[in-house]
Amino acid sequence: MKDIENIELAFLSLDDYQELKEAMIASYTTMPDAIWKKHQIKKLIDIFPEGQVVIKVNDQIAGCALSIIIDYDKFDDNHTYKEITGNYSFSTHTKNGDVIYGIDVFILPKFRGLRLGRRLYDYRKDLCERLNLKGLAFGGRIPNYHKYADKLTPKQYIEKVRRKEIHDPVLNFQISNDFHPARILKNYLEGDASSHEYAVLLEWDNIYYEKQNKKASTIKKIVRLGLVQWQMRLYKDLDELMQQAEFFIDAVSGYRSDFALFPEFFNAPLMAENNHLSTPEAIRELAKHTSEIVQRFSKLAISYNINIITGSMPEMVGNTLHNAGYLCRRDGSMERYEKLHVTPDESKVWGMVGGNQLKAFDTDCGKIGILICYDSEFPELSRLLADEGMDILFVPFLTDTQNGFSRVRHCAQARAIENECYVAIAGSVGNLPKVQNMDIQFAQSMVFTPCDFAFPTNGVKAEATQNTEMILIADVDIDLLRELNQFGSVRNLKDRRKDLFELKKLNPKTN
Q1: How far apart are CA 260 and CA 473, in angstroms?
Q2: Model pTM greater than 0.85?
Q3: Is 129 one of the catalytic residues?
Q4: Secondary structure of 68-119 in HEC code, one letter for each residue
């Protein structure tokens, strides 16, 4: 270490060949024939110069990484090294491929222990991201397998290596660099006696890969959320209520928000005109406004170029009363969601019933989920949405007391941690003296994140002032979720013991 003056990563040049050859001879003492010829190195440099790099210590080659780009789907799951390299001619390389395949990587024995191999692997990962390829792959030798071949199958050997019961210098290193074993490759490399010609197909997935889109639109990675903390007040009619709703949409759109989230039952003030009716009758009268409100929201979504989550409203489905809302996309399309778990009060006072539709929704900002208030307190629902690819969970809610709010708040934050997603909650504040069963409200709208180094330490991205009418604007970075899923301090989704339990949706019952 004390003699090292500089370490440099450089592109391989044909002028380096003689020194490279000597380095290969010194590195592959057990496989003296595994030396690349000069014309082969020239071919690699010609077809893919960025894929051929050396690491130099004091201007001396200390290691090398060689690679090509392949169309991964064209190769059989049990391919050999000769097949993947086109009989060592590299005719399998294609600029239109989707995976970087590692042809060779080595560090000279006298430079091992300096973690130089990690620098070569990190370069390949960076290159993969720059070229927007799906990932990296290569056949990893298991050079210590010959010591255990009479006792263990290759699969058993790999499992023991993963559990640290056996040390394999190559495989241990590759697993520690985020490569995951995909399968065993039999008869992979001719002459690899120490591995009994077995290899492990190792893969690394590029979490930033974006499939080429033929449309002009693209999925946004930085998403701006606009949460409406709605003040309950009396309105003389539907037009006045929607005028207030448009004011908030205009405001959050002015900040270039991608979503506007309204609370649960934000339209409850319209029940005041039917206060002379029984409570069940009054809310059914309110449900008659839902269709028109949704149509107006859809027009506002288009005109203000924003995706609107309408909170929730009472809605009649046949003869049954539901609590439902709509996702009004800015492209004019709409989708319905509904409350699956109604509270005891909703059931007893209004005769409301739970729905049966649960799904994640595609948007121009990725997949989202929507759970209405009480539903956020049932972790199974958000976990199912996470399994469908949800990145942001929206929770419109209505709570009358701090007790009720605390249940929603703490459950929503738990959902963010356990599902590695963002969670946005929006509620109503104030009171409605002329509306039965809706007299007081307590809320604090918030945006939650997972708790890891890339996020706020307390898992709170933004929070509104309690019990005050206002809007809350917050940006969330979707790529941070991808990094968390792969490299987080803990990985709640990947580390689930699916060998012990499973969670699945059943076919919903019809109403």
Answers
A1: 9
A2: no
A3: no
A4: EEECHHHCCCCCCHHHHCCCCCCCCCCCCCCEEEEEEEEECHHHCCCCHHHH
Location of structure tokens 């409350």 = 339
Dihedral pair phi/psi, residue 56, rounded to 5°: -115, 140
The DSSP 8-state label assigned to residue 171 in this structure reads H
pLDDT tens per residue across span 41-100: 999 999 999 999 999 999 999 999 999 999 999 998 889 999 999 999 999 999 999 999
Residue of higher predicted confidence among 110 and 421: 421
| Residue 306 near residue 226 (C-beta atoms within 8 A) | yes
Among the listed residues 56, 125, 264, 377, the single catalytic one is 264
Alpha-carbon distance of 161 to 172, in angstroms, equals: 7
Mapping DSSP to helix (H, G, I), strand (E, B) and coil, where does residue 374 land? helix
**How far is the C-alpha of 389 from the C-alpha of 367, rounded, in Å?**
6
Q: What is the DSSP letter of 345?
A: H
Cβ–Cβ under 8 Å, residues 280 and 350: yes
Query: DSSP assignment of 284-312, as one string?
Result: HHHGGGHHHHHHHHHHHHHHTT-EEE--B
What is the pLDDT at residue 511? 47
Q: What's the pLDDT score for residue 157?
A: 93
Calpha distance 253→307 (Å, rounded):
10
Q: In what order do the strands lie in the sheet with 460-463?
A: 361-363, 366-370, 392-396, 422-426, 446-448, 460-463
Residues 6+ apart with CB under 8 A from 496: none
- Residue matched to tokens 């050859």: 21
β-strand 392-396 against 366-370: which pairing, if any?
A: parallel
Binned at pLDDT 50, 70 and 90, residue 448 comes out as very high
Q: Give the number of other Cβ atoms within 10 Å of residue 22's Cβ.
A: 13
User: What pLDDT, on the 0 to 100 scale, is given for residue 407?
Assistant: 97
Q: CA–CA separation, 126 vs 367, rounded Å? A: 26
User: Tokens 């406004």 — which residue?
Assistant: 289
The residue type of 116 is L
Question: Which stretch of DSSP H or E encloses residue 324?
Answer: strand 320-328
Number of Cβ within a 10 Å radius of residue 77: 8
β-pair partners for 307? 259
Residue 219: pLDDT over 80: no
Contacts of 163 (CB under 8 A, 6+ apart): none
* pLDDT at residue 218, as a whole number: 60
Task: Determine the Cα–Cα distance for residues 133 and 407; give it in Å rounded to an integer.
Answer: 43
Q: 56, 339, 367, 461: which is the annotated catalytic residue?
A: 339
